[in-house]
Amino acid sequence: MSAILTVDNLSKQFVLHDQRKTIPSCANVSLTVNPGELSALVGPTGAGKSSVLKCIYRTYLPTGGRVVFRKAVGQEIDLAQATEHEVLALRRTEIGFVTQFLHCLPRKPALDVVAEPLLVRGATRAKARDRARELLAALHVPEHLWEVSPATFSGGERQRVNLARGLVARPRMLLLDEPTASLDPRTTEMVVELLRVIKKAGVAMLAIFHHPELVGQLADQVIELAAPVSRTPPLEALAQ
Predict the structure, then answer these.
(1) What is the model's pTM?
(2) Which of 25, 33, 124, 222 could be a cystine partner for 51, CB 3.0 to 4.6 Å?
C-alpha cells in the first residue's frame, strides 16, 4: 500500500525575537499515513501534537523537514515547500481538517456551514444541503437548529457541526484534532462509527484523541511524540 502522506524529520519552532528565545513545538517527527487507516498521535502535553497537524495543513509553516503528500493524480508534493495557491487547492479537494473549534461567519446557518465544502467542489446547493442534513441528523444536532448560526450553540453542538463539516466531503486525507473532546458519550459513539465508515471507504486519517480508549478502538498505528527540549539560540541566529 502506497502512503498518502510521508512526514520526515518535521520540526516547528516559534521565535520570540523580542525575548531572544525559541519555543520548540515539535521536533524530528517522522510518520506515514495510509489510505483506509487511522494513525493516532500521542504524547505528553507540549510534545507538539497539534502543531504537527497544523504543519501538515500548513496553518503553520514548518521550520524543518519534509511533508510529502501524494495527490489523487499520483504526483507528490512537499507541503513544507508548497505555495499558498497549491495548499489552498489541496484543502478544497483532498485534505480536510477537523479542529477543536468551529470558525464560521456569525450569521451563516449551520446547514450552510456544513454544506460549504461540497459547494466548493461543485455540488449543487440542493445536493450539498441534503448531505449536510444527513450528517447533522446522524450527529444528533436538533433539527430546529439547522437554520440557525452555530455562533449561538453550546460547545458540544458547535463541535458536532464542526465534525459534520469536516466529514461531509470525505477528503482523501482527514486531520482530526481532538474531535470528540466536547461531546457526550452517545455522540462520541456515533462519531466513532462514522470514522469507521469513512476508513472503510479508503480515507486516510491522522488524529489526536482526548480519550486514550478511542485510540485503542480506532487506531491502526500509534505515533508517540516526545516533548522537545527548549533552547535559547545565539544572538547572531536571531539577527538573521
Answers:
(1) 0.86
(2) 25
